[in-house]
Amino acid sequence: xxxxxxxxxxxxxxxxxxxxxxxxxxxxxxxxxxxxxxxxxxxxxxxxxxxxxxxxxxxxxxxxxxxxxxxxxxxxxxxxxxxxxxxxxxxxxxxxxxxxxxxxxxxxxxxxxxxxxxxxx
Length: 121
Hints:
Layout: E1 3-7, E2 10-13, E3 18-25, E4 33-39, E5 46-51, E6 57-59, E7 67-72, E8 77-82, E9 91-98, E10 110-111, E11 115-120
Parallel strand pairs: 2-11
Antiparallel strand pairs: 1-3, 3-8, 4-5, 4-9, 5-6, 7-8, 9-10, 9-11
């Protein structure tokens, strides 16, 4: 059982940076694969990137080279460092936990509440 609480969202200008955090409760946090998804108004929830239990990472093409996922198992925390932000990055960002890394929402058992990221032009 994992509970996820996100923070760090807000308003930022295009070209700026923002770091999102996802604090997890649960004794076995280190055993979960973690991921970030995002959802813009009127659109389906989209894959951003994931990180395995061994900290290997994979990113959607739309964010590759700009976003970095990391995890600190000692702090039970997942991070998303976002650089060179664009207006099209505007969305609600969600963290998720599951048994295996995947690009599909249905493969994740636990979800955070979401945090709004708005990028102005």
